[in-house]
Amino acid sequence: MADKVILHRCSWTFLKTELDACYRVQKALDAQGIEYEVVKHGYGKGKRPEVVALSGQKLLPVLELPDGTAYRAESKDMAAKVRAGEVA
Questions:
Q1: Which of 54, 36, 63, 46 is nearest to 12 (CA)?
Q2: What is the DSSP annotation of the chain?
Q3: 50 Cβ neighbours under 8 A, 6+ residues apart
Q4: Cβ burial 9-35 (10 Å sphere, 16+ → b, else e)
Q5: From the first residue on, what is the mean pLDDT of each consecutive set of 10 residues in the chain (88 residues)?
């Protein structure tokens, strides 16, 4: 069990734009001052077995919460829940 949030995101989050789903969630975590660790996963929508094992599907981003659960939804919804204090 982790003692902080783990953000599983794509390895190519470098543009830092709202068009990037992974950055959208990372930006929300930053805005809330939530401490997190980043785990980068391969480019594209390949098989991503680690992500499937964690969340049941291969899409990113995924938040791995301190209690060991995983949270995955559309990135806009994820960011909204983080900003509202409902996640992490």
A1: 46
A2: --SSEEEEEETT--S--TT-HHHHHHHHHHHHT--EEEEEE-SSS---HHHHHHHSS--S-EEE-TTS-EE---HHHHHHHHHTT---
A3: 8, 41
A4: bbeebeeeeeebbbbbbbbbbeeeebe
A5: 84 70 94 95 78 93 95 97 91
Q: Which of these, 72, 85, 84, 77, lies nearest to 24 by C-alpha position?
A: 77
Full-model pTM = 0.87
What pLDDT does residue 15 have? 63
* Res 1: pLDDT: 47
Output phi, psi for 22, to 5 deg.
-65, -40
Structure confidence at residue 16 (pLDDT): 66
The answer to whether residues 40 and 48 touch, using CB atoms and an 8 Å cutoff, is: no
